[in-house]
Amino acid sequence: MAELRHLSCVAALAVLLGGCPSATPEAAVDLDGSQLPAVSDAAVALTDAGAAAPDAAAALLDASAETPDAAETPTDAGDIPPDAAVVLDAGEATPDASAPADASMPDAAAPDASMPDAAATVDAALPDPCADVMCPANAACVAQPTARCVCNEGYTGTLCDTCSAGFVVATDGDCIPPVKLALPMDNQDGGYIDPPVIGFDNDPDDAFLDTSCRAHDGRAFPACYDQHSGTDFMLNGGFDTMDNGSTHVLAAADGVVVYVRDGEFDRCRLDIFQGGVVCPGHDTITPANRIILEHRDGKRTSYLHLKKDSVLVALGDVVLCGQHIALVGSSGNSSAPHLHMTLTDAEGQNRDPYSGVGSQPETHWVEQDAPNGLPGTVCQ
Ligand SMILES: [Zn+2]
């Protein structure tokens, strides 16, 4: 346990209205059923005609009987029942699949038993009920039951300019789900990470003893150590493994490289006789090689103690989750080769990526409890 007392790694750096607009007045008028030709009136007219010419009337009435659908009664294009247009346009303008489900709103693309058969005969030139509907950004027009704007998934408010519950504002202004993390170190066939991880200290008290800490699941030292600002993944085999090629540090999520430091001595280690970490050949603990990534929701992940000259990315690079960004080393205030990953929220506060009784209810891992007691490797 003693060597775990000095694993301390330097932390890298230290909407609102409900509902969418209802149908526009134009759309409401277009969809007003009162404009439908009244079949019964037509029948009366035809019957009246029949009084003067009974045979013709019979023929006309027969014709009318064969075309019960209002849409099929002889009318010019301008009189075609709006419902027919709705059926056509609904098919063409299927609501955005990402739009929030509305239990009260029938699926415009779904067959409607009450819909006339007119769909089969509609003219492609029929007006689109959404044609004159101007929706705000992050919204799409839905034709049924009346043409209206529906916010895209993740957005709410009259102008669809507010993030829905469970979504956060991205650095580019979009509403996105919170970024979640994948295992940040390549465990290959399971042999590179020596579990368990050494966790973030959720105990706010600073204590004299490194043993004063609380891991996400409530465990004390050595599951964590005092004031530990991140999560440590120990390299199985230590310096021997490091000297045999080490293993890759992986981007825990898509992001942009916002800080890089490389070229520093990478063989710092715990010296129990010195009572702490030493960096042989140096008078003081040398700086850690590190990479900091910024993710789309403003969170940052920092990767410390990297092997000298192993950094594979440059400032400003866009990286993908799982991408190799460096090798595990032991630079900086490091007792042995390992990766220290720090998660910082958009406000700059260090966070425990794990959920649990000692931390917050929501995990920041895509999969917190994967095999081997490690987070999962699957990216968000
Ligand atoms: Zn650490």
Write up what this structure looks like.
- With 380 residues, the protein is an alpha+beta fold.
- The protein folds into two domains: 1-14 and 170-380, Glucose Permease (Domain IIA); 25-169, no CATH class.
- Helix content is 13%, strand content 18%.
- The protein has helices at residues 25-30, 39-52, 54-66, 82-92, 238-243; strands at residues 139-142, 148-151, 155-156, 162-163, 168-169, 175-176, 193-198, 231-235, 248-250, 255-261, 269-271, 276-278, 290-294, 300-304, 318-319, 324-327, 338-344, 350-351.
- Helix 2 (39-52) runs antiparallel to helix 3.
- The two termini are 35 Å apart.
- The model is unreliable at 1-113 (pLDDT under 50).
- Zinc ion binds at residues 7, 9, 228, 230, 232, 340.
CATH superfamily of the largest domain, by name, is Glucose Permease (Domain IIA)
**SSE string:** HHHHEEEEEEEEHEEEEEEEEEE
Structural class: alpha+beta
Distance between the termini: 35 Å
In round numbers, the mean pLDDT is: 77
Poorly predicted runs: 1-113
Let me know the largest β-sheet.
8 strands, antiparallel
Jot down its keywords:
alpha+beta, Glucose Permease (Domain IIA), 5 helices, 13% helix, elongated, binds zinc ion
In short:
The protein has five helices and 18 strands. With 380 residues, the protein is an alpha+beta fold. Zinc ion is lined by residues 7, 9, 228, 230, 232, 340.
